[in-house]
Design brief:
Helix content: 40-55%
Shape: elongated
CATH topology of one domain: Jelly Rolls
Oligomer: single chain
CATH architecture of one domain: Sandwich
Number of helices: 4
Structural class: alpha+beta
Number of strands: 8
Distance between the termini: 94 Å
Strand content: 25-35%
Radius of gyration: 32 Å
Largest sheet: 4 strands, antiparallel
Strand order of the largest sheet: 1-8-3-6
Length: 213
Amino acid sequence: MAGKTLVAVALLSLFANVRAIMFYLEPNAEKCLREEVQANVLVSGEYEVSEATGQTANFIVTDSKGHTLSKKEDISRGKFSFVTETFDTFQICFTSHVPPHMRGIKQEVALNIKRGIEAKSYEGIGEAAKLKPMEVELKRLEDLSESIVQAFSWMRKNEEEMRDTNESTNSRVLYFSIFSMCCLLGLATWQVLYLRRFFKAKKLIDISRSRDC
């Protein structure tokens, strides 16, 4: 039983999709973070920006096609969430705005991002469905198992794509090597024939005498 518990904890820590980061936002500057997320994954996050008199900060989340997933202006703290439709790279940007007559100061930004089962509120799900604590935990473990299966499937798909790419690259390298060898052989043959004609024209060698010998 203890061994199974350790395995479950190890898998949970392996596939826990929680990322917390803290950075400084320069005055009148933009700071963006990018993250790749699989399809049909819930992404949620919390952010907090330190106060600076006269300064404002904006927040926006976009995908690789430029679609806006979440956007707020003049922020101090807040939350966001969205569900990805396809495997894509989303971008989280914080922008600082300072009036022209002000110098401005750096603002500290704290960002906490959760993905998958870590982004779900199982307490709220249990209350809405009137589930018992054990049923809520079983639901969480079921979602965890599904996310692990999806993660392994995604890694297997990537491995297959990388293998196909390697095989295609190897074939192209082989054909290019054969083509290069043919070019070198053709060039060497041309050089021999050219030098032979050159020496013959300059009468540096006597072809007929060399043949008699």
